[in-house]
Design a protein that fits this description.
mainly beta, Metal Binding Protein, Guanine Nucleotide Exchange Factor, Chain A, 47% strand, single chain, globular, 159 residues, four-stranded antiparallel beta sheet
Length: 159
């Protein structure tokens, strides 16, 4: 999917979304704590969206996730549960989500957690700091090797 210049266009991503393994180093930091560090992430690719990285739950620091009341539904992946991040006295609400019983075709996501980059202090992919997808709904991770435009900002709901 990468072009001659090494970039990927999110408009070349499929619909329905595809799950693929990533061997890139993915990290998440919050309140001075390295919450996750893995080269075993999955990424979900969907037309017009930056990838969302799903990290194995075993790569996430113990004791920082608190179940949230918040639930969402994806037409492809099914019912998602959300978690607050809590480090010391600081809470980031609904910063993490997961599909405990993913829909058929997305079973690989079971046991993985996705972080909203805008709700933590820093996410990186191979050392590059991620830019959060605008709008804070989809939770995409924007890196310099991606080309948009990206869905999520004002006026993009009808794309």
């Amino acid at each position: 999917m990468a072009t001659d210049d090494g970039t990927e266009s999110v408009w070349d991503y499929p619909r329905p979304p595809r799950v693929e393994r990533s061997r890139r180093r993915v990290t998440v930091e919050f309140r001075g704590l390295l919450l996750a560090d893995t080269k075993e992430a999955l990424r979900v690719l969907e037309t017009s969206h930056p990838p969302v990285y799903y990290l194995p739950s075993s790569a996430v620091a113990a004791g920082v996730l608190v179940p949230s009341w918040h639930r969402t539904w994806c037409e492809w992946k099914g019912a998602a549960v959300h978690f607050d991040l809590v480090v010391g006295e600081v809470r980031s609400e609904n910063a993490v989500w997961s599909y405990p019983e993913p829909a058929p075709g997305y079973e690989a996501l079971r046991g993985h957690l996705a972080f909203y980059p805008s709700r933590v202090d820093r996410c990186t992919v191979d050392g590059e700091v991620v830019v959060p997808q605008e709008g804070d709904f989809y939770g995409g991770w924007i890196t310099s090797d991606l080309r948009g435009p990206f869905k999520g900002g004002p006026g993009t709901a009808g794309w």
